[in-house]
Every structure is written in C-alpha cells, then in structure tokens.
Amino acid sequence: MNRHIKLTSALLLLSAVLAGCNDAGTAGNGAAGAGAGAERPPSPVSVVVLKKAVQPLTTLLPGRASAFQVAEIRPRVSGIIKEIAFKEGSEVKAGDVLYKIEDDTYQAEVAQAKASLAKAEASVPSAEANLARYERLVNSGATQIEFENAKVTLLQARADVAQARAALNVSQINLDLTEITAPFEGVTNTSKFSIGNVVTANQSDALMTLRRLDPIYIDLTESSANLLRLRQEIAAGRMNKNENDATADIRLTLEDGIEYPHAGKLDMSEMAVSETTGTYSIRAVFDNPDNLILPGMYVRASVTVGSEDGYLIPQRAATRNARGELTAKFVTAENKVETRTFVNSHISGNSWLVTDGIADGDKLIVDGFQWIGDGATVAPVEATVDASGFVVEAPKAQDAAPAAKP
C-alpha cells in the first residue's frame, strides 16, 4: 500500500515539472515572437540621380577582321628556287626580296640579246652611207630603183636594231624577275616551296601569301530592318543624324571582352541587301600597329548612328520583362521602391537611352535592387557609375570624427 502511494506521488511530481517546463518554453517563444515582430531597418541601396542630356545612340554589330591587302606570291619565270630570303611569319617591306630563282640561263639570254643588238646597230652606218651615195648619183647614172632599195635597206637595219633592243629588254626583265620581291609591306606566312623546287611561270600554286595588317579591315553586318527603322526615326525627328557619317567613330570589343584602344572609321557600305540573310555589309578600317587584330578574328563593333535627348540607364541597373520591355527600379520621394517599364529604349554605349517615364532628379537604383521588391522602404545612398557602365563607385567618405573619449 505504501509503495503504491509513493509511486503515485512521484508521477504527480513529474507531471508538475513537465508542465512548468512547457510554460517556460511558451513564454520564451512569446518573447522571441515579440522580438521578430520588431520593424527591420531600411535596406541601403546605391542610386544615381538622373538628368536629361543629349546622348549618342549606338548600335552593336558583329564583324570579322580581314587583311587590308592580300597577295598570293607566284613566280613569273620558270626555274629552280636557289634561295628563300625571308623568315616565315616575319614582317617585310615593299621591295624586299622573298625568293631567288637560278638565273644562269637568263644571264646568258641577256648576253645573247646584247650581242644581237650590237650586230644590228653595226649595219646601220653602212646602210646610211649607201643611201647617201645613191642619193647623190640618182641624177647621174644611178637608177631610181637602186636608190629606193638603199632606202629600204636602211629602214630594215633600223628595224633590226629596234627588234634587238626589245629582245634585250625582255631578257633583262626575265633576269630581274628571278628575284621575287614583296609588292607591299606586310606579314609573310609559311612558304609552300623550299630550296631546290622547280617552279613555273604563273603557276596555280602560290609560293606564299603576303598580308598587310596595319591598317586592317573590319567587315560588319547590319540587318536591313534596323536600317529602315533608323531612317524612319531620323525622318520623324526623334533622332539626330551624324553630321558626317563617313567620319563616325567605331569602337571594337575583342573576343576576350577587352575594348580595342583605337577608334575606326567607316570605309564603305554595300549598296545592296543579301537575299539570303537580309543584311547589308559595312566595312570599317582600323589602325593595327601591334597586329593585335588578325584576319578572321571575330569582334563586336559599337557604331555611333546619331544622338537623342534622354536619360541613360546603365545595363547593370536594367532588366527585361516577359514581353522584352526594359524595366528598372527607382526610389520614390517616400524612399519606397517602384519598378518602371519603358517600351522604347535605345543603346547608348554601355547603357540604355530612354526618353519617357523619367524626370530630372529621379533616383535610379544601380546596386542592391536584386533583394528588394516594390513598396519596400530603402535608404538611398548616392553613387556614380564609371564610363564602362559596370562598376559602381561610391562617393568619397568624409573624414571620420574622432572617437569620444571614455
């Protein structure tokens, strides 16, 4: 009986302890909930204050590099290659010797032509003297026929001299052509023939290819639809045309994303649209002093096509909605976040240019907008965006006040 009473008392005591623990936990949770319900401080965001200004309008075009000049070097006389006078892959100047062909035969031909010329020239004085003699005797015994024959003989002698001199010139040209020279300054490639190979005049296989890389051409392509849209906007007065399209600067971005340091100029544009791709070609020319751009390299070109009065939205601060429209987040006068949509936008360097939906002094969020939604309260901090449009530079901090002494 006593054991039963003790067991019952122990169970009651254990229940009381558990109930106390449960009450304590409930009280703790209530305190935590009260703390969680406290208002969070506004999130700091970087903003730029927008101001309307005339900005350049640019378009991005894909392109390929091509050599400014290309020449496939071929022999103009036949023979055996006896010397290769250039280093493969090196730069050569105009007139530099590239190949030398065995010239013994051509030197002999020159000597033979010189002898033929001397022989022909030797007969001219005799023919001239003979003609002068018959001219004096034509009225005193010499017949007219003899006089005419002497005249013909002199003409033939002079013609033989001219023929021999022409043959000598041909022989000398062939001798000079045994040295194959560079037609312009450029960079050589691998020689396809070696010393001892027999080559023939005007053969189909080139000895090597010479390319001039400075300056260099960039072949760009643009859609005809964009061309028509551009002309319509200029005609409607929404866009200002460049004063001189031929001198419009063009900037390149290389395959590794680095901007090319030299600006290019428009060289020509194809006055026809491709029937298969619906594009037309534009060719630009760039200085290439370091041979940084090589033929066949892919590039992206930023071409200035005009200007317009509007506001710049850096690409880092803009997104596209499901309909492809440009969107960006702004801070209202009450420090609330709002999203604005822009139906019309144009490219201007590394930014988007818009003309509607913004006023001077509006604050565009350029950093920190990824984690906030519309209606959220934020603490705007003014900042600037550098020329590349990617790096946000916070304003310089003021000198910190000295710490208070305890």
UniProtKB/TrEMBL annotation:
<feature type="domain" description="Multidrug resistance protein MdtA-like beta-barrel">
    <location>
        <begin position="215"/>
        <end position="306"/>
    </location>
</feature>
<comment type="similarity">
    <text>Belongs to the membrane fusion protein (MFP) (TC 8.A.1) family.</text>
</comment>
<dbReference type="GO" id="GO:0005886">
    <property type="term" value="C:plasma membrane"/>
</dbReference>
<feature type="domain" description="Multidrug resistance protein MdtA-like C-terminal permuted SH3">
    <location>
        <begin position="312"/>
        <end position="370"/>
    </location>
</feature>
<dbReference type="InterPro" id="IPR058626">
    <property type="entry name" value="MdtA-like_b-barrel"/>
</dbReference>
<dbReference type="InterPro" id="IPR058627">
    <property type="entry name" value="MdtA-like_C"/>
</dbReference>
<dbReference type="GO" id="GO:0015721">
    <property type="term" value="P:bile acid and bile salt transport"/>
</dbReference>
<dbReference type="GO" id="GO:0030313">
    <property type="term" value="C:cell envelope"/>
</dbReference>
<dbReference type="Pfam" id="PF25944">
    <property type="entry name" value="Beta-barrel_RND"/>
</dbReference>
<dbReference type="GO" id="GO:0015562">
    <property type="term" value="F:efflux transmembrane transporter activity"/>
</dbReference>
<dbReference type="Pfam" id="PF25967">
    <property type="entry name" value="RND-MFP_C"/>
</dbReference>
<dbReference type="GO" id="GO:0046677">
    <property type="term" value="P:response to antibiotic"/>
</dbReference>
<dbReference type="Pfam" id="PF25876">
    <property type="entry name" value="HH_MFP_RND"/>
</dbReference>
<dbReference type="InterPro" id="IPR006143">
    <property type="entry name" value="RND_pump_MFP"/>
</dbReference>
<dbReference type="InterPro" id="IPR058625">
    <property type="entry name" value="MdtA-like_BSH"/>
</dbReference>
<feature type="signal peptide">
    <location>
        <begin position="1"/>
        <end position="19"/>
    </location>
</feature>
<keyword id="KW-0732">Signal</keyword>
<dbReference type="Pfam" id="PF25917">
    <property type="entry name" value="BSH_RND"/>
</dbReference>
<feature type="domain" description="Multidrug resistance protein MdtA-like barrel-sandwich hybrid">
    <location>
        <begin position="70"/>
        <end position="209"/>
    </location>
</feature>
<keyword id="KW-0175">Coiled coil</keyword>
<feature type="coiled-coil region">
    <location>
        <begin position="110"/>
        <end position="137"/>
    </location>
</feature>
<protein>
    <submittedName>
        <fullName>Efflux RND transporter periplasmic adaptor subunit</fullName>
    </submittedName>
</protein>
<dbReference type="InterPro" id="IPR058624">
    <property type="entry name" value="MdtA-like_HH"/>
</dbReference>
<feature type="domain" description="Multidrug resistance protein MdtA-like alpha-helical hairpin">
    <location>
        <begin position="110"/>
        <end position="178"/>
    </location>
</feature>
